[in-house]
Structure formats: structure tokens, C-alpha cells
Amino acid sequence: MRAHEHESPARACDGCALTRREVLGRALTALAMTFLAEGLAPNALAALTTQVTGIAGRPAGGNVKAFALPAQDGVQFAKEDELILVRYVGHVYAFALSCPHQNTALRWVDEGRFQCPKHKSKYQPDGTFISGRATRSMDRYAIKLAGTDVEVDLDVLYKNDKQPAEWAAAVVVV
Prior knowledge:
The chain is of the alpha+beta class. The protein has three helices and 13 strands, in the order ααββββββββββββαβ. It has a single domain (51-173), classed as 3-layer Sandwich (Rieske Iron-sulfur Protein), CATH 2.102.10.10. The relative contact order is 0.15.
């Protein structure tokens, strides 16, 4: 199953007590507790416990969409807007859904990063390029805090190789 698809509510095994998602969630929780016990960095813990959900924005004027400010670290896909909203260690980002290399939809993988399924380009939760065929980081939308929402301007997309200062500033600190 792809990371961005929703699992069917029906269990694959009638005799199973837990879904695959529940088993993986419990395993990640146990691993996170081990990290805490060993005193490993909080950023590593945050990457392991990130939740993936779907969201819908609401018009905020022009081609601006408002999304509820995420309450915790997580990755939210707004497929209809071709957008990924991420809260990660006190920062909120809005990314284009497609890989900057050849416009394939990116996925969130269990290792706590984004990955392109086509050519395996990898990105950190903040969109920074790690490795693969892509030559730059994920594209960021202009984003701002508006009360208890974040507003994303779908007409303003920054590329870190062309607009590095704007790309770096396209973040909400919470």
C-alpha cells in the first residue's frame, strides 16, 4: 500500500486483533520510548512519531487556502490542492505535492522523510534535499499565520535554487 493512500476500514485478516497500522504505530511508540530511555535527540523522536493524515483547506480569498494550525508534528496531504502541510519540531511548512525532479507525487516514508517513488529522491521533513536524481529541495508555498489557521498562497511557490531567501522564509514558527 502506498503511504499516501488510506487503508480500508476492513481488516485483511478476520482473526487479527490489530490492523497493520495499529501494529506499526505500537512498534514506533516502543522504539520512541527506547530512544527516550537512551537519551537520543528529540528530533529523531519527532521524525519517528510523525502522523500522516489527509486535510481539506477552505478558501481565504484569491487562491489562498486556510488550514487549521496543526496541533502536533505531522504530515498532512491535501491532494485536491496538490499540497503537503507539515508541522515538524515547531515549524510549519507548505510544500508542492510533486517532486521537483519530474513532478511525481511525493510520499512520506516510515524513516521520517519524503521520498519520490519514481527515482527515489529523498527529502528531510523541512523539504531539504538529501539524495537522489532531484537537484534541489522541495518547492515551498508562501505561508503565514492567521489566528489559529495557516494560510497558504497557492499562487506563490518558491524554489530554493532560484529564490533561496524566500524559500527559507516560507515557514511559520509555532
